[in-house]
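Morning - coenzyme A inputs below, output right after.
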Amino acid sequence: VSITVRIATAEDVQPLRRWVLRPHTPPTDPFPPEHDGSVHVAAYDGDRVVGVATVFPQPWPGPPPIADAWRLRGMAVEPSRRGSGVGRLVLAEAMRVMAEAGASLAWANARSVALAFYEAAGWVPVGDEFVTAETGMPHRRIIWTPQ
Ligand SMILES: CC(C)(COP(=O)(O)OP(=O)(O)OC[C@H]1O[C@@H](n2cnc3c(N)ncnc32)[C@H](O)[C@@H]1OP(=O)(O)O)[C@@H](O)C(=O)NCCC(=O)NCCS
């Protein structure tokens, strides 16, 4: 199977992101939220979107706060394609985008179940586990410093 990973439109990433990460959110609820400056990344098998992520400028809340930080959200791979490197390719492209944008720090709220996925790509957990209101799931905050 040949997979290509590239910058994508919000319309391309939205369906898989919602289906994987917010399956119980009513279609009437706006999800995902729009963030100014968002760059979307998708993995395609032909026309089919099999992996997605979104990055955008958002200050690191600190401490200490960092103004020129970028945040990663919406990392999702189609269930039948998991464990074959699609997520790694999408995450690498998202990291490249943030580095090229000049981010001095990249951060995310990672689901604790997926922490090892991010650690394998060089991300580091910081702080205690917490539960997000939107998902009810345990998370850790993770950071990565572009070189
Ligand atoms: C987490 C997710 C994006 C990973 O994508 P993927 O395509 O399955 O991951 P890859 O195959 O590219 O794996 C890359 C590395 O991370 C590891 N990894 C992947 N998923 C993992 C998981 N859930 N837990 C632990 N390690 C994981 C793999 O072992 C692999 O390392 P290896 O090649 O040395 O074995 C995908 O499983 C997913 O969409 N999960 C459901 C949604 C989710 O939890 N998203 C994250 C929200 S923060």
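Note: Residues 20-21, 75-77, 82-88, 110-111, 113-114, 116-117, 120 surround coenzyme A (CB under 6 Å).

O.
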